[in-house]
Amino acid sequence: MKDYNMELTYEEKEILEGKKGETMRKALKSVVLYGETFGAKRLLDIDGPVHLVTSFGMTGLDTVFDMMDEIIKAGIRTKEPFTVDPRPIDYDNVECNEIQKKVFKGLYGNQGRYESQLKKLGLKDNNAFTCTCYMPQVGNIPRKGQIICWAESSAVVFANSVIGARTNRNSGIIELLCGIVGKVPEFGLVTDEGRRAKWIIELKTSKLPNAQVLGSAIGMKVVEDVPYITGLDKFLGKGMNSSTMDYLKDMGAASASNGAVGLYHVENITPEAVEKGRDLLNKGYSTYVIDDQELKNIIESYPILWKDMNAKPSICFIGCPHLSIEQIYDWSDRIYRALDKRGKSKLKLNTVLSAAPDVISKFREDKRAYKKLTDMGAHLTYICPLMYMSNSECSKQPVITNSNKLRTYSRARFLLDEDVLHAIVTGDIKEAEKFD
């Protein structure tokens, strides 16, 4: 057996010697080499299901699909049923013309094959496609202190920060291999030292900031470091509730995409901050003050990548990361009030709200609420808007969004929630009227 710079158990050595088959040997070897790259000295047992970032059967990823077939042929599955990021296509709820469909067919030509492979490897169920696997309707909810291995950046930062579980920002495929061997390398955010904060973020705004913009500001400043945020409890209150969780979900997603944040602490709110307070701060930490002017500067720094800067929007995406059921109800009420104020009943703009399939199913059980939303012209979908924007024909359109993640990774134009409301009700972008 090759010499490794890692303390290995007897069982791990046996696997690396091929005593549990060649496929398992290669899987564990990959995990060990991954850990050694980051200085890990040993492997830890995973306590819960993995969450995979790779949910799309993209053309050109043949090596991945071949590897999946090898694992399946060896009769290997993940230790526990897993969840995976959203599907890329939903023609029933997200309109596409024939040219766009043709591009999608070429782009995600292996989708059927890949979903079949995922089921054989341990996919939780046919609805387990979402970036918010921790929603109660979905059920992949780790516990505080639990060692897991996830790879979706917005899910990683939520699990670490809001729940207090422990996972690094792992690469796609690595999380699957860790789920197969039931081990994860001990480094970074799974360690006590790696979870200490290098920054204190002093929030000094006059009102609760837009979550997406606050997360953007934090991510761009601290990059991959751990921030300790003060001042949010003034607006959100102490402790955790569903609305606070939704706010932190969106803030964290922006910090993870506009930077590379995998964990943040919020004073008097997130579990480790409640437990340890400012003892989580490293000596010599840096300070970043965020006030109203700083957030205004952040918003004004966002580029507009539309070919025609004065174009009217053609589609709006809300829900990147996926919405909670409470957020769907909230957006439905806000849209209704905005339309009612103008004496209208239908949206002027194709408006798509994205959420987990199980969340959508639960919302649809409220037939009155579902009818109210769809009668106004809004659509519910399970897709990832980023995958939609990966289509070159779709990305040519003037797309608007309230998601900083979607803005960062595509040509979509970012608008604050109140500006989104104005645009979808009027079909135009101009100075927003405040509906709330």
Automatic annotation (TrEMBL):
Coiled coil, from the record: none
InterPro entries per the UniProt record, alphabetical: PMDh-L-like_dom
Domain Phosphomevalonate dehydratase large subunit-like: 6-411
Superkingdom of origin organism: Bacteria
GO molecular function, one term: lyase activity
Keywords assigned by UniProt, alphabetized: Iron, Lyase
Name the record gives this protein: Phosphomevalonate dehydratase large subunit-like domain-containing protein
Lineage: Bacteria, Bacillati, Bacillota, Clostridia, Eubacteriales
